[in-house]
TrEMBL record, chain A:
Species: Gouania willdenowi
Complex and partners: Component of the eukaryotic translation initiation factor 3 (eIF-3) complex, which is composed of 13 subunits: EIF3A, EIF3B, EIF3C, EIF3D, EIF3E, EIF3F, EIF3G, EIF3H, EIF3I, EIF3J, EIF3K, EIF3L and EIF3M.
Chain's gene name: eif3h
Entries under PROSITE patterns matching the protein: MPN
Protein name in UniProt: Eukaryotic translation initiation factor 3 subunit H
Gene Ontology molecular function terms on file: metallopeptidase activity; translation initiation factor activity
Cited function: Component of the eukaryotic translation initiation factor 3 (eIF-3) complex, which is involved in protein synthesis of a specialized repertoire of mRNAs and, together with other initiation factors, stimulates binding of mRNA and methionyl-tRNAi to the 40S ribosome. The eIF-3 complex specifically targets and initiates translation of a subset of mRNAs involved in cell proliferation.
Gene Ontology, cellular component aspect: eukaryotic 43S preinitiation complex; eukaryotic 48S preinitiation complex; eukaryotic translation initiation factor 3 complex
Region (Disordered): 246-280
Family to which the UniProt record says this protein belongs: Belongs to the eIF-3 subunit H family.
Cited CDD domains: MPN_eIF3h (cd08065)
The keyword Protein biosynthesis is assigned to this record: yes
UniProtKB/TrEMBL annotation, chain B:
Sequence similarity: Belongs to the eIF-3 subunit C family.
Species of origin: Gouania willdenowi (Blunt-snouted clingfish)
GO biological process per UniProt: formation of cytoplasmic translation initiation complex
InterPro entries: EIF3C, EIF3C_N_dom, EIF3CL_C, PCI_dom, WH_DNA-bd_sf
UniProt feature coiled coil, ranges: none
A Gene Ontology molecular function term of the record: translation initiation factor activity
Matching Pfam families: eIF-3c_N, EIF3CL_C, PCI
Protein name: Eukaryotic translation initiation factor 3 subunit C
Length: 317, 913
């Protein structure tokens, strides 16, 4: 069953703070989520960031650091069950091999683990963007078997739509936090509040398009690769077929002449099938492209709404 | 020789002395003798004889090996040799027809058959034979049976009269011991120890004595054969002075033996020699032997050279005193000298001298022009032969001699209308005698002249182009042209069409690359400022254009070899282009369709094609056809190997890839320096045309993702310029062009102009054009126009409207010009604007897509290609023909996203306004 996820504002703020402190532009920050499973919910109650490494401390041990952190947290009696991790994103680009791999290892260890994706740019535009994802069981199967060949994926019948499942989020704050929020809202200026109504769109769209285009290029390349592969494969199949036929004819002739048959040779050795290109990347790219499109769609629909609103306002004046 | 005396090897001295009447003093004697003897020998017969001997020698050699193999019962070897023998016999069929089947051949056939039958009967022996041999035996037996059927009569005749077989046996013995050289040597030495010692003792005695001794020695057959061995061993010694003995190798001794076999039944060898002393016919024979031998052996040749030198000294002795000098005698002499031609060690210089002397004698004795022409031909040929290697070039003075000779020859030919020459006149149908009939002489003057011309090219190729020597050599070009002209006159009256075509091409090759200053000046209406009379002569001559036209058209009409026509067309185009007749040149180029198949031509023609293309491009540039110029030069320039492609030098880069042989070949293809096309000029013309095309294009397509480079080379130069860490004032031609391009990008035509046309560039490039001023004016004009276009592309977005007056002032162009340029841009949808006639302003329409729109367009394009690729995957699954989308649909897809291009977008936008 899908688990609803709850998280506290406290931790949300921590994530945001982490990004603001350390993340810049397209750089990505990551951290660990802590919490506990209650009934059919996964409650995330705390988090801590992975420190940014620099070249100097190459011998820094992340696992060691995590253990230390968790031990320390346990000492102060905070939930210390490792329930996932979080990552910031840049214009919604997060569907990558790295994410897949680490999420797989998390989910493999603890079934309920999620990854929280925080989009600082969208948030900056006035709406908090926080999403929780989990790999679908199908994808887990595939990852377990490490079978990324075209056939494997075909057998698993998985498309880019079924790779991740989004887990609904409910944010629940403590009363103290609520009070703080009210306080903050009260203090903020009008301009800050109406960030949401910003009409400028081209910058954001341009960036998105740029990223989308890059992915599309990647996809094209992959397709070309796949194309060559399948062409080679079919050519080889033909050769193999011809060879077998010839062999059969010869054997038939030999039989009629009463000679011994030709020894069977290892056909696979003679015709080494070409290396199939891994399809997982293509799948991921497709997922990412889908993601971008969703983002752009969402963004443009909102923007259109704003534009109509602005038009109406102007007409009214 | 004395060295050999010291070591005690006597045989050769003895031998030579026994053959010659003269005492062996001078090493040159043999030749002298041969020359003396040659007086009374018949030429034609000689040739046949020698061929016959050669063939028979081959046969006897083979027979010998067969007999050897028979002895050791090596059937496989026997079979192999027998097959060879049959082949060799077939080869010598001509001779056999003339002379009849040689008896030794028949003897072998008979013997072999008997022998094989014997073996066949011998069941025991057959069993002992190994498999290979047994097989060979049966095959051979079958073969010889079949073969012998043809010679049945001869064989039976032989069998009836087996007396000869004894000689044969003997001969074979000698041959055997000779062929199995070293190992047998020892035995022989042992056997004949006494006689050998006797020889040694007799050594200092005079030669006749020695020969007498030979005669008297009783066991002559044996002893002389052993002697032959010794002699053979010494003869093949590289230092052995090649008198008779060295010539008579074992093989030859055998053949000789065969020839004289019937006459002498004692020891063949010594006997021959004695006979030869007495009998004239045989002398002739012997004399001819050394001649041949010398051709084949280094030592022999070495001696012959000496003989040649000797001869030069005693030139008057060429003909024996008192000999009546008539044509047959001279011809014979000529042939005699010719015999030595091409042989290893022949002193070529001496040969030439001999020919000259002969020519002088002929002239002295008034033997008529025919023979003189023939001698001249041979002199020229031997002058060419002087250099043994075709790749090496003739020495200029040699070449000049050749030139004079050809001139003299032509003089004769012009003087006397009664001489026919041609390569297809057979040697024996020549008519050299003074008679009613016209002279007929074998030889082709055209080939000689062509060769002379090629040698001239080679000389030019091998002279340092920056030396005075080169200039001096180049002065001879006039002479070459003169000769070609004279030959042309001659052949026009007497030659065949093909010959005329060939000589015309020669003439064209010497004309096409020369700029006709006289005509140029005349066409400009300037008086020809001739300084000398010669100049005046030239200026009065035909226009080179008219000559070219006449010659080329003749070739177009008459030529049947494709190559000459191709060359003529290319030269014609080149000549047109050189003289700025752009349209003629272009039309000729297009009509010839040479672009399509030039890659199948041989390299020299391709080089000529490249040269023509380049010249065409430069011509287009001078005429202001920038685009044509660029297109013509693109192929040559984009490769970066212009130098190589034009045959003006080898690239160092390729040095590793080719070996010495290829390099030599390539060097031979090089165009001589005076025909070079200035590479810097070429590059400059190309870069400037690229700049004039590329800069406005770049400005117009700034945001276009699909933008293509017009000229890679030009972009490369731009990048090089950008990479410079410190940008100083331009130095080289390229830097000038790059700097000018940058200025043009900003629409700054004045700076651009100053970079393109200044003193440095003038001296480097522009002054090399014949009509410098006109070209410069054209260039300025082009720069202004293209700068205007660039300016409008780049800055139209910041203007709402712009007055044409301002533009015309900015770019120093007349208002109508500005008007026409802008109109053109609007029509081509390059500029989104309209013209406002009353106020003379250009009103801009803001329709340039924003960067977001541009990006969306790009994305659309990319998606289009993605879909296309995807379809291909699909096609593959379905098979090509069962594809979901067929080709038409795919085409429509492309059209569709063609619609996404700027024009379409703009149209939509314009509708909105």
């Amino acid at each position: 069953g899908s688990l609803t996820k709850k998280s506290s504002q406290n931790k949300t703020n921590q994530i945001i703070k982490h990004y603001q402190e350390e993340g810049q532009g397209s750089e990505v920050v990551q951290g660990v989520l802590l919490g506990l499973v209650v009934e059919d919910r996964l409650e995330i109650t705390n988090c801590f960031p992975f420190p940014q490494h620099t070249e100097d401390d190459a011998d820094f041990d992340e696992v060691q650091y995590q253990m230390e952190m968790m031990r320390s947290l346990r000492h102060v009696n905070i939930d210390h069950l490792h329930v996932g991790w979080y990552q910031s994103t840049y214009y919604g680009s997060f569907v990558s091999r790295a994410l897949l791999d680490s999420q797989f290892s998390y989910q493999h260890a603890i079934e309920e683990s999620v990854v929280l994706i925080y989009d600082p740019i969208k948030t900056g535009q006035g709406s908090l963007s926080l999403k929780a994802y989990r790999l679908t069981p199908k994808l887990m199967e595939i990852c377990k078997e490490k079978d990324f060949t075209p056939e494997g994926l075909k057998k698993a019948n998985i498309g880019f739509e079924h790779m991740f499942e989004e887990v609904p989020i409910v944010i629940r704050n403590s009363h103290l936090i609520n009070v703080l929020m009210w306080e903050l809202e009260d203090k903020s200026t009008v301009a800050d509040k109406h960030e949401l109504l910003n009409l400028s769109s081209s910058n954001h769209l341009e960036k998105s398009l740029q990223l989308l285009m890059d992915r599309v290029d990647d996809m094209s390349q992959d397709i070309v690769k796949f194309n060559t592969y399948s062409r080679n494969l079919s050519k080889q199949q033909q050769q193999k077929h011809q060879y077998l036929q010839r062999r059969q004819q010869e054997n038939a002739q030999r039989q009629s002449r009463g000679e011994p048959q030709l020894p069977e040779e290892d056909i696979n050795k003679m015709f080494k099938p070409p290396q199939p290109p891994p399809r997982m990347d293509t799948l991921l790219i497709a997922g990412q492209v889908n993601n971008y499109c969703q983002n752009v769609k969402e963004f443009t629909s909102q923007n259109l709404g704003k534009l109509f609103m602005a038009e109406a306002l102007q007409g009214h004046n | 020789m004395s060295r050999f005396f010291a070591t005690g090897s006597d045989s050769e001295s003895e031998e030579s002395s026994s053959a010659d009447e003269i005492t062996p003093k001078a090493p040159g004697t043999t030749l002298k003798q041969s020359l003396l003897l040659s007086d009374d020998e018949e030429d034609t017969k000689r040739v046949v004889r020698s061929a016959k001997d050669k063939r028979f020698e081959e046969l006897t050699n083979l027979i010998k090996t067969i007999r050897n193999a028979m002895k050791i019962r090596d059937m496989a070897k026997c079979l192999e040799e027998f097959e060879q023998l049959c082949r060799a016999f077939l080869k010598s069929k001509n001779i056999v027809d003339k002379e009849g089947v040689p008896s030794f051949y028949i003897r072998l056939l008979a013997d072999l058959e008997d022998y094989l039958n014997l073996l066949w009967e011998d069941k025991e022996g057959k069993k002992k034979m190994n498999k290979n041999n047994a097989k060979a035996l049966s095959t051979l037996r079958q073969k010889i049976r079949k073969y012998n059927r043809d010679y049945e009569t001869e064989i039976t005749a032989y069998k009836e009269n087996p007396q000869e077989s004894a000689d044969e046996e003997e001969e074979k013995e000698a041959g055997d011991s000779g062929s199995s050289s070293d190992s047998d040597d020892d035995d022989d030495d042992d056997d004949d120890g006494v006689s050998a010692k006797a020889f040694l003792k007799k050594k200092p005695e005079s030669a006749p004595d020695a020969s007498k001794f030979l005669k008297s020695s009783k066991g002559s057959g044996e002893s002389s054969s052993s002697e032959d061995d010794d002699e053979g061993g010494w003869g093949s010694d590289p230092v052995g002075s090649g008198s008779e003995s060295s010539d008579e190798d074992q093989g030859k001794s055998a053949s000789l033996a065969v020839v004289f076999l019937k006459k002498t039944h004692e020891s063949e060898k010594s006997a021959d020699k004695k006979v030869s002393k007495r009998k004239k016919i045989k002398k002739e024979h012997l004399e001819e032997e050394p001649e041949e031998g010398e051709g084949e052996e280094v030592e022999g040749g070495w001696e012959k050279v000496k003989g040649g030198v000797c001869l030069v000294k005693e030139k008057p002795k060429m003909f024996a005193k008192g000999t009546e000098i008539n044509i047959p005698v001279v011809v014979k002499k000529l042939n005699e000298i010719l015999q030595a031609r091409g042989k290893k060690g022949t002193d070529r210089a001496a040969q030439i001298e001999l020919f000259n002397a002969l020519a002088a004698i002929t002239a002295e004795n008034n033997l008529g022009q025919g023979i003189l022409v023939k001698i001249k031909f041979n002199i020229i040929a031997s002058l060419y032969d002087y250099n043994p290697n075709l790749a090496a070039f003739m020495k200029p003075d040699m070449w000049k001699k050749c030139l004079d000779c050809i001139n003299e020859l032509l003089d004769i030919l012009f003087e006397d209308n009664n001489i026919f020459i041609g390569e297809n006149i057979a040697e024996d149908s020549e008519n050299l005698a003074i008679s009613e009939q016209p002279f007929r002489v074998r030889g082709c003057i055209l080939t000689l002249v062509e060769r002379m011309d090629e040698e001239f090219t080679k000389i030019m190729q091998n002279t340092d182009p920056h030396s005075q020597e080169y200039v001096d050599n180049l002065k001879d070009e006039g002479k070459v042209c003169n000769i070609i002209d004279r030959l042309l006159d001659y052949l026009e009256t007497k030659g065949s069409t093909e010959e005329i075509c060939r000589v015309y091409l020669r003439r064209i090759m010497h004309t096409y690359y020369k700029f006709d200053y006289k005509t140029h000046r005349r066409s400009l209406g300037l008086p020809a400022e001739s300084k000398s009379e010669q100049d005046q002569d030239e200026s009065e001559g035909e226009d080179s254009a008219i000559i070219m036209d006449r010659l080329c058209k003749f070739i177009y009409a008459k030529d049947r070899t494709d190559r000459i026509r191709t060359c003529a067309i290319l030269c014609h185009i080149y000549h047109h282009a050189l003289h700025s007749r752009w349209y003629q040149a272009r039309d000729l180029m297009l009509m010839s369709h040479l672009q399509d198949n030039i890659q199948h031509a041989d390299p020299p023609v391709q080089i000529l094609y490249n040269r023509t293309m380049v010249q065409l491009g430069i011509c287009a540039f001078r005429q202001g056809m920038i685009k044509d110029a660029h297109n013509a030069l693109l192929d040559i320039q984009s490769s970066g190997r212009a130098k190589e492609l034009l045959g003006q030098g080898l690239l160092m880069r390729n040095m590793q890839e080719r070996n010495a042989e290829q390099e030599k070949i390539e060097k031979r293809r090089q165009v001589p320096f005076h025909m070079h096309i200035n590479l810097e000029l070429l590059e400059c013309v190309y870069l400037v045309s690229a700049m004039l095309l590329e800069i406005p294009y770049m400005a117009a397509h700034e945001f276009d993702a699909r933008r293509r480079m017009i000229s890679k080379q030009f972009h490369h130069q731009l990048r090089v310029g950008e990479r410079q860490p410190l940008l100083g004032p331009p130095e080289s031609m390229r830097e000038h062009v790059v700097a000018a391009s940058k200025a043009m990008k900003m629409g700054d035509w004045r700076t651009c102009h100053s970079f393109i046309i200044n003193e440095k560039m003038n001296s480097k490039v522009w002054d090399l054009f014949p009509e410098t001023q006109r070209v410069r004016e054209m260039l300025v004009r082009k720069i202004q126009e293209e700068s205007l276009r660039t300016y409008l592309f780049t800055y139209s977005s910041v203007y709402d409207s712009i007055s044409m007056h301002t533009l015309s002032e900015m770019f120093q162009l007349e208002i109508p010009t500005v008007h026409s340029i802008i109109s053109k841009m609007i029509i081509n949808e390059e500029l989104m604007a309209s013209l406002d006639q009353p106020t003379q302003t250009v009103v801009m329409h803001r329709t340039e897509p924003t960067s977001l729109q541009n990006m969306a367009l790009q994305l659309a394009e990319k998606l289009g290609s993605l879909v296309e690729n995807n379809e291909r995957v699909f096609d593959l699954k379905q098979g090509v023909y069962g594809g979901y989308f067929n080709r038409d649909q795919k085409g429509s897809y492309q059209q569709k996203h063609g619609g996404y291009q700027r024009g379409g977008y703009r149209n939509q936008n314009q509708n909105n306004y």
